[in-house]
Amino acid sequence: MLYLNDNTESTYKEIIYQYICFIADELEVKYNKNHLRNPYKEKNARTSANTEIYSINEYLELVSYVSDVDYHKKRCYKEFKRPLNNTEKYKSYESVWLYIILHLNNDWRSHDVVTKVPRITLPESITDFDDFLSRKLTIEEKDKIIAEITSKYFTIKSSKKDKDGHFFCSEELQYPLANALIACTLNQNHKNNPYLIEFNSSNELPNSLNKRFFQEFSNTQFLFKSKKMNTTLSTFTYEYIKHCTNLDPMQITKMLRPHSSFNTTKKYIKLSQFELDRLSRNLFDDGNFGYTYDYLHRIVFGNSLSEDKIILQERKRYLKTLFGDSTKLENLSTQLISIERDFNSLTEYLSSLDNTELQKKLMLINLRQLPAKNEHWQCLLGDCLFLDRDCEKCPFSIPHFYTLVNVISNLEKIVNDMKVNFLTSLETEKRFKANILYRYLFLLSTAKKKFGASFLNEFSNGRYDVILERVRNLPNIKKYITLQEV
To answer: Quick one: three-class SS letters along the chain?
Structure first.
C-alpha cells in the first residue's frame, strides 16, 4: 500500500491521509483514523531532526580521527583477517572509514555515498592487505588516486537532482581518502558486490558498525548520521560566510538553498580564527585556477595592485617559452600589447573595489556563486558585459578544473583539424586557429601550475600528455599568433 510505503513521497501520503480521514468522517469504517500514521507529524519530526548539527569540536575531532591513517590501516587489516561471526554478512570497517571521509567534505545523500563510489586502480606496489599494511603511499600515488576518483565522479549524476557529481576532497583528507579507497577496493576485489561500500544491504550506516568504528574515539557513544552531517556542513558554511562577509543573511540563504540539507533555522556558533581557518580548508572547493583567480587571491592576501605585476610577467614569459624568443617572433609586440590590454582592464576593475568587496568576490568564487555563461566558469563581474565573447577569451572569467574536460576535448579537435588542413587554410583561418590553440594551451599551463602535470594526465585519462605531444608535431604557427579577439 502506497500510504505505508516509506519510499512514497510525503506529499502523496498527505493526500491519501486526507482522503482516508474524510471517508472515516463520512462513512462507517472499521478503523480509527486517530490510529493512522500521520504524515504531517512525521514531516514535522523530520524537519526538527534536520536542524540538529554536530558541534565544531565534534566535526574537527572527526576530521582528526579519520586522518589517523596508521591506526585505521591496522584496524582494516585486523577486520579483514577476523573470521565472520554468525550475525555478519560482511566485514565493513573500511566501508565505514570511507563513508565518513566522503561525508566530511560533501553534502551528499547517504544513498549516493554508498552506491556511487567508483572503483579505483590500485597502485602497482599494493596487491593485498599485507602490502597495504606495510607500505606507505607516496605523494605521487596519492595524487594519482585523487585525480582518478575526481575524474570518475565528474561522470556521475546525483540520484536526487540528476546533476554532475561535483566531488571535493580537502587537502587534509586526501591521504586518508586514498588509503580508505585502497582498503575498500582490496576487500571487494574477490567479490561480486557492485558497490565499493557495503553495509549489509543497507544504504545507511548501521549502529553496530558505527559502534565498532568509534570504539577508540573520544566519545565512544558517538553516533554518525548522514543527514545530521549534511546539515552541519551547510550550517558551518552559512556561519563562515556570515563571519567573513557583510552579506545579508537572506543572500547567504539563497546561496545555500541548492544544498539538500540547508535549513533557515540556524543556531548561533562562535568560531575562533583557528576553527575558521580549518573549516575553510574543509568546506570550500579549491578547484579554481588561472591568472585572474591568482591575481585576485594575491590582492586579497596582501599584494598591492600597483606593485604586483608578477602574473602579467608570467603570462608574457609563457608566450615566449611556447612560441620562441622575441627576436624570432614577428608578431610578439602585437601579442604583448594584447596581453597588457587585458591585464589593464582587469587591474582597473579590481582597483575600483575596496578590500571588503574584494574579499566578498573571492568568497563567492570559492563558493562557486558567480556563474558565467559557460559551464564550469565563473565571472568576476557577476553579469556578463561581453555577450559575444567566450569565457576563455575574457580576462574577467575564472575556470574551475572541471573545464579541463572540455578544454582538452576542444584542443584535440583543433589539433586534428590543424594537422590536416592548416597548411592549405586561408591566412585569416590560420590566425583564427593559431589564436584558439594558444588560448587553450595557456589555460592548460595555468592548470598545470596549480594541479601538476601528473594530476592533469590522470584526470584526463592520459589525454593530457598525448595532446601535448601532438601539438609539438604541428606545423610552425608562431607568426599567426596575434591574441586579438577570435
So the answer is: CHHHCCCCCHHHHHHHHHHHHHHHHHCCCCCCHHHCCCHHHHHHHHHHHCCCCCCHHHHHHHHHHHCCHHHHHHHHHHHHHCCCCCCCCCCCHHHHHHHHHHHHHCCCCHHHHHHCCCCCCCCCCCCCHHHHHHCCCCHHHHHHHHHHHHHHHHCCECCCCCCECCCCCCHHHHHHHHHHHHHHHHHHCCCCCCCCCCECCECCCCHHHHHHHCCCCCCCCCCCCHHHHHHHHHHHHHHHHHHHCCCCHHHHHHHHCCCCCCCCCCCCCCCCHHHHHHHHHHHCCCCECCHHHHHHHHHHCCCCCCCCCHHHHHHHHHHHHHHCCHHHCCCHHHHHHHHHHHHHHHHHHHHCCCHHHHHHHHHHHHCCCCECCCCCEEECCCCCCCCCCCHHHCCCEEEECCHHHHHHHHHHHHHHHHHHHHHHCCHHHHHHHHHHHHHHHHHHHHHHHHHCHHHHHHHCCCHHHHHHHHHHCCCCCHHHCCCCCC
Considering the entire predicted model, what is its pTM? Answer: 0.72
State the DSSP code for 423.
G
pLDDT one-digit tens code per residue, 187-228: 888 777 778 888 876 788 888 889 989 999 999 889 999 999
Domain boundaries, the chain: 2-49, 56-228, 293-480
Q: CA-to-CA distance for 67 and 264, rounded, in angstroms?
A: 31
Does residue 92 contact residue 199 with C-beta atoms inside 8 Å? Answer: yes
DSSP state of 203: S
| Minimum mean pLDDT range among 107-116, 338-347, 353-362, 395-404 | 338-347
